[in-house]
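Archive entry. Fields below.
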Amino acid sequence: MRLVDGFEAVLAFYRQPLAVAALLLSSLLLSFGGGAVMFYFHAIVRGEQGPAIADVHHWLLDSGLGFVGLTPVLAVILPLGVRAVSRAGRFGRQAYVLTVAVLFTVLTGPGPFLHNQLAGGGTPLADFATELLGSDAGVAARNLDVQERAPLTEGLLQLAVGLPVYLFFTWLALGLVRSAVGFGRRVSAPLSATRCP
Amino acid sequence: MITRILVGTPTSERGAGALLAAAKLADTHDAELVVLQVAPVLDARSVFDPNGVPDPGEHLRPLHRSFPQLRMRNQQASGNPVREVCRAAEQEGSDLIVVPQRRRGSVSGLLSRRASKALVQQAPCPVLLVAS
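PREDICTED_STRUCTURE:
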């Protein structure tokens, strides 16, 4: 497929309301659901850098930024997942979930590094968030133990933990969209049957 | 004289207006009707609504009942609607193309207003745009 044809195909894809709904729902689930798991892993388990704000605020802030920043990325990934379906025959659902989750995991691999550069402890954004949302004494004490970690190790850990997490949330998003569409059809069918011809 | 009409529709009931207009015209002129259903290359329904992928012949059945004498053929294509409709019109030697045009702000219909203009410029025969 030529680049221009690919661009046209993606535009035509997002002219379908179902595609836009799937993009928004997938992005919400991956950013906030996947973000919650990744936040727990990075901030609680690994004790990585961050502003000294309450964990819930931190998760909402990171996931909100992730939603804004990663929705355009997902907008490119989703059509690739749909394309994979046409080549996968009866394994279409698996091909879609695998394609989207793997690409999303790879593209968010540098996430922890970017997070520490943009919003890690001591950055202007972290200071602003702490001033706006208030400092949390427990988190501030936890942040005192922060150790420097190699970006490569962090990236690889992100991939190892991220892949199963994003596989699950991509599968969940697909299931929810399909269920919502099925529910909509069941609700609208009796209504359209009662309409005057 | 019109002997063959090509109607380009999306693979859903959204092009029903154009289909009906084309069928009436074909019936009046005793012309053959070629129905070209154009699906997007990346069809969201194939993943998110596999049960909603329509049977290609389903929304043609009412036409068979309304116009029993009408000679009608069905074709499927996927890709750029303007390119596919032009290609089919040329291959079929159509005398007229009928396509549903999207209203401003609407998502239904095969062609956007800009694509309709492109079709009018590139088509090998006259084009009738039907607001969907």
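CURATOR_NOTE: Residues 4-41+54-98+110-131 of chain B form a domain with the Rossmann fold fold (CATH 3.40.50.620).
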